[in-house]
Prior knowledge:
33% of the residues lie in helices and 20% in strands. The chain has 458 residues and is an alpha/beta fold. The chain is globular, with a radius of gyration of 24 Å. Bound molecules: ligand BES and manganese (II) ion (2 copies).
Amino acid sequence: METVNAYQESNRDRFLEELFSFLKIPSISADPAYKEEVSNAAQWLSNKMTEAGIDGVEIIPTEGHPIVYGEKIMDPGLPTVLVYGHYDVQPPDPLELWDSPPFEPVIKNGKIYARGACDDKGQLYMHVKAFESMHKTNQLACNVKFMFEGEEEVGSEHLGKFLEDHKDRLDSDVILVSDTSIISNDVPSITVGLRGLSYVEVEVTGPNKDLHSGVYGGAVANPANVLCAMIASLHDDQGRITIPGFYDDVAVITEAERERMNEAPFDLEVYKDELGINAVHGEQGYTTLERTSIRPTLDVNGIWGGYIGEGAKTVLPAKAAAKISMRLVPHQEPDKITELFVKHFESLAPPSVQVKVTPHHGGQPAVTPTDTDEYRAAAMAMKETFGKDPIPQRSGGSIPIVALFERILGVKTVLLGFGLDSDAIHSPNESYGLFNYYKGIETIPHFFAHYARLKQIS
Ligand code: BES
Ligand code: MN
Ligand code: MN
């Protein structure tokens, strides 16, 4: 019988060509102008899933972008793995900062450059190709279900309802997701925590029109000045967030756990170098690894108002606005945090302006346990293909659906990602290493084999 490895070896080039076709479809979920392209990506993916041997592949419409579903049920006695991924991508702008067009994938220095190369088309497609390799060599040891969504990058708004409506169909023993990163190509890791998210937009309004900044400046509140002062006051000089009650529910991490966490390889000099910064920054009393995993944060994602064109125009803007995200940790509740933010931010406004806060999407944090069959199966799989035991590590990013899987379906997730922090996801020149793409395709079948075996014993 042909081995999975041999099959993968002889189909390497095709696996890459197919990913290239996928990456060429600009499935930008945030931009309504690309709605058709998002649906083209769903169609392309469903065709490829069927070709790979997945049964009953269906494009299921939602009120937003469609979900692509398919399955292979081998034997009801076998464990069932539900694979989740997202085929939508972030907008590519600013376009002028890309070295090659975002939807014309190229390979340079062993990496695939394109929007979605890593997040998440490349990582999603590893699962389709891993499945194909197991199926075509008759070595699939579990039942598999695939659920690929097109709205992750805009908050997975309709996925909760989909889970509620399709509980039976989605019945499974574990959810397998590749949408996170490893520490480095020689230090494999498994993500065991994701941060939650509360996202708001704030608007400060002053006079009823833009004013001459000489005639009125100094006598009328400038919404841009006021907004900056309000935002600046959201952190104290210790880097802590000043919203009353913000830290009330933050889970306390034991000293022992913090120590273990900080043993993970991390080079501050390399970190600063890669980002072109002279110093790091953040909440006092915590390391960089802690600041990006176990501590909550507040950041302006965009800010605007007044004149931002060429040259100088003297104007006192009538309005200024900002988009602000808060990354949350267990056991902070996004809705509660949003409420605290709204109340506090409104209270900060001087009588000379008006403030409006509009909440956007949110998501709950998640922690995944390490004393489970799925974690052990993932760890053994990585040990085999990387030659080293992976390190469990919490990530700073968010995948809100992970908490929903647990709450609605009652199923735990294993986050078996293969990206690198240097892949520049959401940034210009996003990339994904060829090493990582093929390593993922190689590792996933080992997960299935170990998981089936461990489940049978337990
Ligand atoms: N794949 C990322 C999340 C991620 C990135 C997890 C790196 C761990 C390491 C996901 O596509 C993403 O970007 N999520 C958004 C949240 C969403 C609600 C828009 C995020 O984290 O900003
Ligand atoms: Mn992603
Ligand atoms: Mn993303």
